[in-house]
Structures are given as structure tokens and as C-alpha cells.
Amino acid sequence: MDRATLRHTLTELYNADTGNSLSTLGDAVRLVDDLGLDSVDMVSLIMQVERRFRIRLSHEELSAVLTAGDLLDLIATKSEAECILRAA
To answer: What percent helix, strand, coil does the chain show, rounded to 5?
Structure first.
């Protein structure tokens, strides 16, 4: 899946989960500081991401996620790995 599609899907998930209406999430947008997500919001968003992309994100992986770009990179990496595993 290309990054634009991932970004669009992440934006949709964010909007649906929070009730906000961002048109897009830029790479530099900080999830906590800029969007004001608290721990409950983050857990909910991550659960939506895991369901939509059929991936599992560990606490260790998520601890390095500060921005939307970080999350997009992680989703892309995990999604690619899952596709390879399913194809094998």
C-alpha cells in the first residue's frame, strides 16, 4: 500500500475515532502535542489501525511513535511484513 493511501486511511480513522475533521495528517504532526491525544485516545486509535491493517503493534514499537509520520512508517513496515508472511 502506498504512503498516500496509508495517510488517507489513518486520517479517516483519526477523524472517526475522535469526531474531528482533519483533511490530512502531515508527517510532522505530533500525535500528543499537536492533536492533543491522551492515552485513551491513542489506545483507541491504535486498535483501529491494527484492525484496519490487520497488524499487531507492540508497546516497544509504539514507544518510538511521536508523529503521524512515525506511525505511518511503522504501519508501512508492519503491513509489508504481513504481506510477505501471507504470501509465503
So the answer is: 65, 0, 35
Answer left, alpha or beta for residue 19, where phi above 0 means left and psi between -120 and 50 means alpha: left
Domain boundaries in the chain? Answer: 3-87
For residue range 18-31, list pLDDT tens digits in order. 998 999 899 999 99
Cα separation, 16 vs 73, in Å, equals 21
**Choices 1.10.1200.10, 2.30.40.10, 1.10.10.10, 3.10.50.40: CATH for 3-87:** 1.10.1200.10
Write down the pLDDT at residue 24: 86
